[in-house]
Amino acid sequence: MKKKIIYLLLPVLALFVSCGDNGTNNIDNQNSERVFYSNSFESETDISGWQGLTKEMIADEAFPANGQHSLHISGACLQPAASIELDNTSEGMYKLKFWAKMGQPSQSAALVLKTEGGDDNKIEITANSLDWRYYESENYIQVPVDKKMILEIWVGGIVSADVYIDNLKIEKYEPLLAAKSVYKSVINVFK
Q1: What residues make up the domain containing 162?
Q2: Nearest-10 crossing angle of helices 175-189, 2-19
Q3: What is the spatial distance between Cα 31 and Cα 182, in angstroms, rounded to a whole number?
């Protein structure tokens, strides 16, 4: 009987787990099995491979409970302000997550994750909060094994702007790992 209840509640629990609460529940953020790329910009080595970033952009500020530094980047007309190409070793679906805050009111920045050679397959998230806020893409992008992923940071435009970015992650969607996590949650409820 217990197993029947668990199997009946599994889809409902999966719905609650997938909806989340926009970053206040960090259980999903701690799942290192799905993390493809992660950067908290704690040292100079963390900007290795990035175009447009310098060591002076590592700021002595971080969102609460995540190290002591973040990336502080400004931009205006030349876009993207920074980018990195990431080799992809396995085909899959990926999503983007990060914490950010703007340096001044009425500014915005965008993080864009796309596949090499294709602007039609991308995720774009706009950050515009003056306080640290968690951002997570609602959608995934499908990336073939032979294509690189490109992560771009767009800041400002006609008017210059600046943004702090921390705990930047690209996660691979693994249906079996997601189901395993939900199953463990259900089992723990009935223990």
Answers
A1: 24-173
A2: 120
A3: 12
pLDDT of residue 30: 45
Q: Determine the 3-state secondary structure of 137 from DSSP.
A: coil
180 belongs to a structural domain: no
Q: Is the pLDDT of residue 45 over 80?
A: yes
User: What is the signed CA dihedral for 119, 170, 137, 73, rounded to 10 degrees?
Assistant: -80
Q: Is 71 exposed, middle or buried (0-12, 13-18, 19+ CB in 10 A)?
A: buried
What is the token pair recorded at 186?
């259900």
Torsion angle, alpha carbons of 161, 51, 114, 124, to 10: -10
pTM (2 d.p.): 0.74
Assigned domain for 186 exists: no
Average pLDDT over residues 84-107: 92
Q: Considering only CA atoms, which of 85, 90, 109, 87 is closest in space to residue 98?
A: 109
